[in-house]
Amino acid sequence: MTVPLALPRPLSLRRLGDLVHQPILVLSWLIVLVVIGWAVAPGLFTEFSPYEGDTGASFAPPSAEHWFGTDRLGRDLFARSVYGAHTTLTATLLAVLLAFGVGVLVGLIAGFSGGLVDTAIMRLVDVFLAIPSLLLAMVVVSVLGYSTNNVALAVGISSIAAFARVMRSQVLAVVTQDYVKAAYGLGVGRLGVMGKHVVPNALSSVIALAALEVGTAVLAVASLGFLGYGAPPPEPEWGLLVAEGRDFVAVHPWASILPGIALAVVVIATHRISTSLRKEARR
Amino acid sequence: MTDTVAAATEVTSATDAQEPLLAISGLAIDYRTGRRRWNPAVRGVSLRVEPGEFVSLVGESGSGKTTLVQGALGLLPAAARIRGGSIAYSGVDVTGWNDKRMALVRGNYVGFIPQDPNTSLNPVKRIGVQVIEAVRLNRPKADYREAALESLRTAGLHDAERVFHQYPHELSGGMKQRALIAIALAGRPKIIVADEPTSALDVTVQKRILDHLVGLRAELGIGILLVTHDLGVALDRSDRILVMQRGEIVEEGPVARLSAVPTAEYTKRLLDAAPGRHTGRLAPPTAGDTPSVLTARALTKTYQLRGRQELRALDAADLVLRRGTTHAIVGESGAGKSTLAGILAGFTTADGGSVQVGGREVIGLRRKELREVRRDLQFVFQNPYTSLDPRFTVARLIAEPLHAFRVAGDRKDRVRELLAAVSLDEEFLHRLPFQLSGGQRQRVAIARALALNPEILVLDEAVSALDVSVQAQILRLLVDLQARLGLSYVFVTHDLGVVRLIADDVTVMKDGAVIETGPVERVFHSPGHDYTRQLLDSIPGVR
Amino acid sequence: MPRYIALKLGRAVFVVWAAFTVAFVLLFVLPADPVDLLFDPAELNSVPPEVKEQMAANYGFNEPVIVQYLDRLGHALILDFGNSVQSGQPVLRAVVDVLPSTLVLAAAALVLAVLIAFGVALAATSTRRVWLRNLIEALPSGAVSVPVFLSGILMLQVFSFRLGWFPSFGDGGFRSLVLPLITLAIPVSGPIAQLLVRNFTTELHSGYVTTSWAKGSTRAGIVIRDVFRNASLPALTIAGITFGNLIAGSVITETVFARKGIGRLTQTAINTLDVPLVAGIVVLVAATFALINLIVDLIYPVLDPRLRATLAAGGSR
């Protein structure tokens, strides 16, 4: 009675049935799945080419045929958005994988070894947190050269610190748990404790962060694209699409606003998913 | 506004009549468990507190006692609703009153003492400010400062001036609880409701706080409703007791009648389970001269605090555990008993001294060698909710030490055998910890500790987190296992009632040092030290 | 206490030094031929080798790396980050020139963001309708999900082109500040609001709030006297992150609204590969970040008696 009785629950898909009561979460998953579909097989979702347009039909407003309208060169903007998903999402995925992989490893080493190693790593992480990630990504991409891959690399590098910090704090929290102490008491070795208890339990929170970071990385990739550091112009990329339409926004607002809204909807969906994962991890 | 003023005068004027201070009748409270799904927590409970009466409401966790109190004070969480029944203070029905109207009843008419003093005071405000708030809200015409100081003194804080200027973190748990009593008294209430006011405190402090409450009743003529899980506490001090189980009052009556001839089956079980009411042991004591399996000599441990301060957690402590017996270590928080247990189990390194397990020195062993000792000496933690990895199934949990030591043979069979030894069915094999009750979890933890056939179990407050009836079952299990397997236990506890039930020897600790040690019979009947006597006097429910 | 201050100060100095080193490595060491970065990539091949040689000597690229590093570090200590390649004026001068414009925008946006965040948190705390509460709690994550360039363009479209209430670009006066200000404040308010909503909820369910209810406090009294301070204090800990968001947001906002400022300057510096200017900006931004965190670390104990007590005991946290 005197002890706070926490009831930790592992992450599981057991309660899929609960989803019925969360229509927005279901919608979020659907949006993300559709957009992944766009990235994997864009041809299935649109008959138009993202590169060639009908110059006679430039700046057509949204219609049954051209859902998002057309741009200056008469290219279908929905098609460009669909194909753009490939560019943007591939870069996002690379960035998050890089940040997740390196960040988790660094955070694990720092949290599990403690002492000087921990201090050294965390001071380094401080430095990377001190430079705003967009600024850091801009510097990195300017050194590496403008391209989608370099944007991915830049965004990835600038988010390593966030993952490292969360992983470390999770590891530190798990290491003090009784069940870790109990495992040592039962004769399990250090590596065994790390692999069987610490990593699985620490990861659930980091996975929720990864989902959140997907949204943030999409924004970062698109922002760099918008500023012109990503793919060169004929290439469809979400940030670039918005930038291209920006000059005509006074007269033809849809040209930049509709692709932008598509982008925002995807990010909102990933945030909703991240929230639900975080709640799961806390149970 | 006229509405609320009327309400206030209604309550105040009604107090003169001979109505009970608090009358709850047929109260039913539900908790929302899903969309349009409600789960009853309190089912038609009736309760009365007369002026000057001390009433106790006893129940185990999940009995709905706290929900009932929250309902009475209008403090139910958003997920709960009152389905039926009424709540009346001095004959004024306050059922369904909104927060604004209830604010005039709370503090003014009914004072509340919360469960955990450590979280119940605002950490960034001085005590004085917090007491003054209570005065200002309820007695706008009083001299705030004087009234607050008076309240603190009445609550038993003699150095009221100093406490007035202190922050909560500068006070001990007992002093914080007294400050909270001062806050409850500041509005000059007619009745005080206390929800487990001492469960977070040491026994000796618990005794003092509860005695003080009894004194206040006599001094101020107020009514007191005490909510507790500890039947012993209720028996010692109440005029009347209500026993609650699964949202219902199963028995009600004056203390003498209830303890002598309980009518409800559940009350009988609770009385049987209350350790303080037993005088004998669960099993006959082990005969005198058995060889020792564990000997600790002059163990010392000092922790470095901030700013070159030191904390002597353990000061030259000795301990001898005889084969096949139970040696209890008792003491209040900060006595060093958990540090001692941690050193025996190899979790904590001692600064000095020696520990011999089966003739082998343990102190100073390296990790690898220490691992070998683990075969003989296992540890059971206090809180079964945190000592089991939430991702492991029961089967995997119990098998973990078998894997760690690469034990040969059929591990699955061994796991089933262990599960049977702690009286759990095989259907539990594939469950996860969150699907188990507290008692079942502790059984799993014990099964896991037994996996390697150790000779010694170190149990650190292993039953303190459990309800009394579950606690009784686990103690019974431990005694049976000891008889069957010839185990030796080091049993760390703060509860002297439990010590008498199962221990052969006892060591009393205070501030890191051993105060007294010897056979339980001798120490309990003729304690050689004042502190031991004080501890013995504080056991609730001994008459 | 002195130990605590020294430790925090040392940490801040270290961060600035390390940021300088990171910028140096990224911009002066990693590129195969840093001189190339000084020229427009399109014209690079047409530049005669003598000119490159001359430039390299000017910028000290001929020296060993360690000498270059120490030289630049020495100058950086007196806030001399060299000259901008594009304009030829000192880096510090270039930054200070545009600083007021960004400062006005960022400060106003910060104030607005904090107001929005508190508004959201208080609204979420005071409503008892579950659906409304859920809706309000979803707002902050919406605010950080909408890309700044999109919200900027939407603002322009609606309030400038359609309604004509505000000018679409420029630096002239208060009216030109309104749209960029709102655009920047929204994403900055998101994380603050998320933190506040979470803290307000936890604090509102904490034990001492129950004590206050039992004293006879009303909901408003509890929110004002108990919850507000305890829930707001931790928001200081994300001051550094907020600063980062302000900088990142101003890069995009200033581009969309064609305002001059640090953000635009950074973008131009990156576009033209103005290495000394970029390095200077990175170090100055990191220094500001470190300074903000230092200030927070130093005033936090003043506001929280618990921390003050641990420090008075001579601890270092």
From TrEMBL, chain A:
Keywords: Cell membrane, Membrane, Transmembrane, Transmembrane helix, Transport. It is a multi-pass membrane protein. Its main location: membrane. The chain crosses the membrane at residues 24-45, 89-112, 124-145, 151-167, 206-231, 251-273. The keyword Signal does not apply. It is found in: Cell membrane. Residues 85-274 form the ABC transmembrane type-1 domain. Coiled coil: none annotated. Belongs to the binding-protein-dependent transport system permease family. This is ABC transporter permease. It comes from Paractinoplanes lichenicola.
From TrEMBL, chain C:
Pfam families: BPD_transp_1. It is a multi-pass membrane protein. The keyword Cell membrane applies. It comes from the Bacteria. Residues 99-300 form the ABC transmembrane type-1 domain. Keywords: Cell membrane, Membrane, Transmembrane, Transmembrane helix, Transport. It is found in: Cell membrane. The keyword Metal-binding does not apply. The chain crosses the membrane at residues 12-30, 103-124, 144-165, 177-197, 235-257, 277-300. InterPro entries: MetI-like, MetI-like_sf. Belongs to the binding-protein-dependent transport system permease family. This is ABC transporter permease. It comes from Paractinoplanes lichenicola. The lineage of its organism: Bacteria, Bacillati, Actinomycetota, Actinomycetes, Micromonosporales.
